[in-house]
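One chain shown below:
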Amino acid sequence: MTTQTSSSATSRPDARHADARQGIVHSSDVCIVGNGAIAKTAALGLSQAGHSVTLLVPPARAATQDGAAGAAPWDTRVYALNHTAHTLLSSLKVWGALDMARVATVDAMDVQGDGPQAGHLGFDAFGAHAGTLAWIVEDGNLGQALDAALRFARNVHVVSGRAVRLATDAEHATVELEDGARIEAQLVVGADGRQSWVRGQCDIGIDYRSYHQRGVVTNFYCEKPHHNVARQWFTGKDGIVALLPLPGNRVSLVWSAPDALADTIMNESLGELAIRLGEYSESTLGVLRPLEPEQLPTPPIQAIPLLLIRPHAIVAPRVALAGDAAHGVHPLAGHGMNLGFGDVVDLLKVLGAREAQQGIGDERVLARYARARKEDVLLMQFATDSLERLFGANLEPLRVVRNLGLNLLDKLPMVKRRLIAHAMGR
């Protein structure tokens, strides 16, 4: 585990901007720094709660022409959104703006161990007393729905600029931009990614551990129907392979691969990768093949370094962190984005429940937010980190124990229901 102080981050620009000009002062109740799904969701939630919001996004880049939503390439980045995320996005009128033809449900999960006596663990929506376990949503689909909702948010002002300094005093926080403009607010929300600029400005250090893995993500056609089952293989030395259902006979790959293997995969063709995956998937999904060229994004495959990130705090004077700025977890459970939506839910609850004499940037209010998030985040970090250590060890005694553990857990319906209820955010 390594400790460091975070530095500035960049993120994708929003479609609607008010360019910051020298000397301009933007005043609002809340300033949100970031341009991802968590930043935009927080902006919508806080605005609908009656707060004026300034959303600070990076300077705009040249727009790209993606064509109609139905003809757009399938994103390599997808999220398995749980019921907490679904409820929040529905309440903000975002869920209904998604292109539902590109959303797949997860009705069951199938987890396989490794070795000749591989263990097995299965979950399904029926056993969890739910209509579905999760929803698979592309990053672009979610982003477009959030942007559409923001266009109708009357008290959200989107400012495009690069922040250079954050200062706070007893009354407010000020974010200074490189062109001399300023944003003044009672509260600053840092939702600007795992290399958070806001976190660095607050001198909040982080403990982090590299998993020496990269998350390799891309999409394939599958020969057999996936029946909306999310499949995962703990392979030991080759990491963790997950194939998530997409609409039609398509699946999204998330392979937590050791660095050396990730290098090899990234130097292979998608056809060679499909053959490599057949060792795990062919019995259930048949032959995999790459998507047709017009359905492939640019780039068609990505590899993202995997880190465990624990900031020393998620609040500072008049500052709250959310999303990847507040925590980083291994993707084996697919809950990094869901933790971020949980941050937004708890921040909205805490601000809404504060005493009348307390402002939204009051240190006691922010301390309640930190306490509200502590258990959920620590539990997810502990669970994912422990599972990665257990299933990543390539030792025969451990392989036997973990396969036995999977088989035992599969025969304990009460424990399984508790686990899946927590994963669903219920």
User: Anything to note?
Assistant: Residues 314 and 371 are 10 Å apart (CA to CA). Residues 363-392 form the longest helix (30 residues).
